[in-house]
Known about the structure:
Layout: H1 2-8, H2 16-27, H3 31-34, H4 39-46, H5 48-56, H6 65-68, H7 71-79, H8 83-101, H9 103-120, H10 126-136
Helix pairs in contact: 1-2, 1-8, 2-5, 2-8, 4-5, 8-9, 8-10
Amino acid sequence: MAFEFACKYVHLLPDEKTISEVLAAVWSHDVIEDCRQNYTDVKNVLGENVAELVYALTNEKGKNRKERANDKYYEGIRKTPFGDYVKICDRLENAYYSKLHNESLLSVYRKEHDHFKKQLWKVSNQEMFEELEMVLQVR
């Protein structure tokens, strides 16, 4: 689903090279975190720019959500070109899925939303945030 959101908002990306790399990163954004792959594995298959995006979206170590998605995590996303775009696609997917299948997790995303928005909002991704807030029913 994250890939579907990336395609839906592809008009926000500046050029074909960026589109290709960002779509590849959205498709593979969890492979380091969830699939026992590492930065070098991603780089060897998808290139350095995609590996940088995937690495930026890999959570920190931590005992809970707050520790895993700490300020350092969000700083890495912001510093990586289009990291915010990839992360918002991921959050849109998670919010939609949770709305359909896991109301308690949806509640977590609602509680986190102000912090998430504070970390990643900018004018260029306002359209994505509008959809996210519609799904989360916040504002």
